[in-house]
Amino acid sequence: MKYAIFVVLVLLLAAIALANPFILEPAGFLAFVKRAAPLVILAAGQYFVIVSGEFDLSVGSLVTVEVVVAARLIDGNEAATWPVLALLLALGLLVGLVNGVVTTLLRVPSFITTLGMMLILSGAVFLWTGGAPRGALSQTFRIFGRDTLYAVAIMVVVGVAAVLLTRATYGRTLIATGDNERAAALSGVRVTRTRILAFVISGLAAAVAGIMLGGFAGVSAQVGQGLEFSAITAVVLGGVALGGGRGSVVAAMGGAFTLEAMFTLLNLYGISGALEYTLQGVIIIAAVAAGAVQLPRLTPTPRKGDAHAS
Amino acid sequence: MLSMREIDKSFLGVRVLSDISLDAEAGEVHALVGENGAGKSTLMKILAGVHTPEAGTISIDGVPVTFGHPLDAQRAGVAIIYQELTLLPERSVAENVFLGREPTRRGMVDRSAMERQTSKLLLELGESTFGPRDAVGRLSVAQQQVVEICKALSVDARIIVMDEPTASLAEHEVELLYDLVRRLRERGMAILYISHRMREIFDLSQRVTVLKDGALVATRNTADVTQSELVSLMVGRELSHYYPPRAAPEEKGEVVISIRGAGNATLHDIDLDLRAGEITGLAGLQGSGRTELAKAVFGAEPFTHGTMTPLRPRSVRQAIAAGIGLVTEDRKAEGLALRQSVGDNALLVSRAMGRGTAARVRELLSRVRLAPPDPEREVRYLSGGNQQKVVLAKWMTVAPRVLVFDEPTRGVDVGAKAAIHELIRELAREGMAVLMISSELPELIGMSDRILVLREGRLAGELPPGSSEETIMHLAAADEAAA
Known about the structure:
The complex is a heterodimer.
Chain A: H1 4-19, H2 26-51, H3 59-74, H4 81-104, H5 110-129, H6 139-146, H7 148-167, H8 169-179, H9 181-186, H10 191-217, H11 227-237, H12 249-268, H13 275-298
Helix pairs in contact in A: 1-12, 2-7, 2-10, 2-11, 2-12, 3-4, 3-5, 3-10, 4-5, 4-10, 6-7, 6-10, 7-8, 8-10, 11-12, 11-13
Chain B: E1 2-11, E2 14-24, E3 29-33, H1 40-47, E4 55-60, E5 63-65, H2 70-75, E6 78-81, H3 93-97, E7 104-105, E8 108-109, H4 111-124, H5 141-154, E9 159-163, H6 171-186, E10 190-194, H7 198-204, E11 207-212, E12 215-221, H8 227-235, E13 255-263, E14 270-275, E15 279-284, H9 290-297, E16 305-309, H10 316-321, E17 324-327, H11 331-335, H12 342-346, H13 348-352, H14 361-367, H15 384-396, E18 402-406, H16 414-429, E19 433-437, H17 441-447, E20 450-455, E21 458-463, H18 469-476, H19 478-481
Parallel strand pairs in B: 3-10, 3-11, 6-9, 9-10, 15-19, 15-20, 17-18, 18-19
Antiparallel strand pairs in B: 1-2, 1-4, 4-5, 7-8, 11-12, 13-14, 13-16, 20-21
């Protein structure tokens, strides 16, 4: 039940294979994984925020900012690659930190905080570029998103790190905070710090995804557009409860693969890419509605014997 | 006017009311008393149509009625003024009174008719301190009660239930409420008046009914009983439950926590020593500051002045680091992350405090007698008793020196109750200092090595182990029952 999303994923991959058997070959499959990698990483980051009971709507704009800033600062200069990469990660961290601090300490709902951050970042990019990004990425920079092995390796490393993190003390206390903040606080959990860190993780994930997309999709002011919704859709598709406290990061990443498979399928059957938004909208509403309807039915009545066990 | 006959009610197979009969005449104030959990609220909710009884009949003016929905009860003329007022603070008095039943003219709300009728009702109740256009949020609690009563009158209620109406009133407002109740009587209404306070019962009511453990103890004419008799009727019960033996004097160890002259907004001049190996019971009426004291010791609602050795915690983390734990009153809201596993809940404190994950979770779960000791199950599927054992396990992972229990067996079935009692005593015997709050006096008496009584935020006195319920009640409610 927890990993039902992978059944859906396999079915979708089978449907893709029917139209285009190339995906069954290692090269074809890896190409699919590479394409999905940035979204998988974003979904992993978004998972931490959603499981703590919040949202991060700023990741799409952050991806755009990362790519545009990278192109401008590197401007084809190979030597600048590594310092800029470090700067990009720091930028992701900083944006996450601001999101987290505003949400927790100033008590602005994260929906509003990160929506505001999204607008601020979009506006800043537009102001800075005048609508047309300048500069160019270096060859070394492009490898991370373009080279299949690099892209898949980064994704695997991020995925494994995310899984380990959810099993570590931090992840367990984060999920408990998302489930019942009051109980967590009265158990000694530093709920504010824990939540802020979730936003930082999401910001870092967006930075990594941005670095990969820069190489994969190229430099444009639209590169991150709509990714925040794709990430949230992926997480919800993976069965993670909006509102927090429930769901696995593996399923959230599975949700990202599934969403990418749906996009691929739409593409294969020549359906307009514009429908991608419609599809995500339907998925989000349907998944949340289904979750709401199913909850009472899925709740098993306590087994006999439990009640009086002593 | 009202007659409830042989009412039975169970929740999840647990009988909460059995064979209860209650009458109320026009122009009568009928007081309903009993300890917490006696069944007063459930009985009133049946009358209000919130719950449906399994057996028994309700009739009004001799006509049998069945209430499937609160609206049915409202139409039959029953109104309830709950302890927590249910008004909309941003709306005007008139809008609140006619909420959901606004008079209309040509499809639009007829404000002037609404305000006119509200004025009339206020006048009838002798209320002149505010008008129909005032925002409810700006009114005092006493004034808001008047609004609630207007609301009841506007639907032609003839039976009014008042659930502890003076609980949140200031002293001078109580007099106003008395006037109001008398006016309602004069209008020929039947009033069911729930209260803990002896003085009000004797001042206002003509008859009094005592409930205990979901059963009817007695209905008497108020003029024919004394306060002491009434207290005895409320608490007198046999100790049917076995409690573990108390600590022998040599088992009591050194003072672990010492509090002197401590206080905050609700607590004053608290002097309190907690000893290793000793269970200190804490009694007090609702609103006496019991939970506040627990939270102050635990740093959740810290003391703002006074001394506490070895440390006066300013935060929960400081308290936990100093070896203090709190088993909260409200398990679901404050104790557990319900959708997480037993293991994750049991490890929450040790993880939060960076003490690593105890490898011995399973052992702990057996130690608290969780059955089955399965760390993978989600705690929301456990019974109340098993959930409480998980909370205990959570604290035992960090081996606190002081554990505060706020209502440790609330919502716990009898079997698990005994197990929890034994565990608490076991922890004390191993050298833990225990502070235990309970509104169930038999439990408090059965468990405590000494009993402290809290009244209006102050410690009113200390009683030896095995004191009677009457003694405790008298001390807890001294201003009323001293007579």
